Amino acid sequence: MTSPLNTPASTERWTPRLWGTLLVLCAAMFLDALDVSMVGVALPSIATDLGLSTSALQWIVSGYILGYGGLLLLGGRAADLLGRRRVFLIALAVFALASLLGGLVDSGPLLIASRFIKGLSAAFTAPAGLSIITTTFAEGPVRNRALSIYTTCAATGFSMGLVLSGLLTQASWRWTMLLPAPIALIALLFGLKLIPHSARETTRGGYDIPGAVTGTASMLLLVFTVVEAPEAGWTSARTLLSFLATAALLTAFVVIERRSASPLIRLGVLRSGSQIRANLGAMTFFGSYVSFQFMVTLYFQSLLGWSALQTALAFLPAGALVALSSTKIGPLVDRFGTPRVIATGFVLMVIGYVLFLRVSLSPQYATVILPTMLLIGAACALVFPSLNIQATNGVDDDEQGMVSGLLNTSVQVGGAIFLAVTTAVVTASDTAGAPPQEVLDSFRPGLVVVAVVAFAGLLITLPGLRARGAAPSLVVAKSAPEEAASTTREAAAVSAAGRD
Q: Which pLDDT tens digit goes with each residue over 227-277?
């Protein structure tokens, strides 16, 4: 089956259908990001209504992260093997049903289960959606423009989730769960009409079942261990054994991938410095931002006594700046290249985090809070789209889902790891019943950690600046056997398409 959208768009003028396709994919990514942040403000109301303990309550957040971060590698490869359109639409339908379930249940375990299912479905929609974009829009200015809009929707969803949850929770926490359902359903209906059909993606000689099992298990166990470590203790036998088991599973995964004829991840991708910098940059970028948001939310509500809505509105300038810049980042990348844009964003991010260290028990909105939010918003607008462009440029179409899943895994794992580390630093000193100033002082080491993580992201980016005369995109090299196998697969795919 063919479609006008099968051939990557290479012109500056987009058709209404092309815009429609992009908007459907943006809606799904917006929902994925929205769901990560929107539930946070509603947690106290959920605890009161369902009678949940603090340990059970954290799993409403962690359950989503576990499903999302643990299954992204499998989701990315499934998009390549089973068909991007098919995987995206099925997962979007599951997301809508799980959202409906989450808003109707009266049981803590069922709510946690619905959150896990939503995370699982997002693990398939995110890499499938990104790979649809990278195979629909030709590499270069056109794709950069599409990716800047797409990733800006993700950043906007994450920022606006706080604002929406502050508004909706005043009516009922259930609305924070139900809101994504109709949006997902509308996106699904339009997606059935607009998302292009394509020739069935090659199975690359079969499915890497052992790789899928060990890779997924290692990611699930890693995220679970990091989420539980602050409560269980970083040096407890349980945590250390979990990390040891994760290392064993990852080792087994690497061995399987090296020997597999159809690997879940082609390890040759990781020989690219550009790919490594993109994934490590994604870990530090999202990890520092999630940790910062967590700390600032506590500061606003616990120390300043702000309401959920006031807290949400304080984050609004950052989200608004990201939304307004959606069409501006692509041209910047075209002119300066991703390393320079990413480095600039990390510089702004570090400055913003350091500036926030000046906060006191008296709100300093005009001199500290607002400038920090604007700096963080500008950083998010620059870094997130550029990381996606850098990770997907120069990659064959049949591996776009794989690299998309790898990048999104880096984002989620980075968020889980650095949030857990920051939480452990903040809670290292017992401040229960302590004076407000002492509580604020306990926050500062966590803010320092956040700034250090962002600075590490800047250092990771700097080696990419040396290739001053290099092309903006870098083709991920394949070894001779991989190249030969790829050529054989492509020939087989062309033959199969001809028979169809």
A: 778 778 888 999 999 999 999 999 998 899 888 877 777 777 777 888 899
Q: State the pTM of this model.
A: 0.76
Are 102 and 46 in the same domain?
yes
In our burial notation (b when 16+ CB lie closer than 10 A, e otherwise), range 456-467 reads bbbebbeebeee
Q: Are 318 and 373 in contact (CB under 8 A)?
A: yes
Q: How far is CA 84 from the centre of its chain?
A: 18
Which residues form the domain of 243? 208-261
State the burial class of residue 150 (Cβ atoms within 10 Å of its Cβ: 0-12, 13-18, 19+): buried
Contacts 24+ apart (CB under 8 A), 140-143: 140/10, 140/334, 140/473, 141/12, 141/330, 141/331, 141/334, 142/9, 142/10, 142/11, 142/12, 143/8, 143/389, 143/392, 143/393
Q: 165, 179 in Cβ contact below 8 A?
A: no
Q: Do 202 and 227 share a domain, yes or no?
A: no
Alpha-carbon distance 55 to 59, whole Å?
A: 7
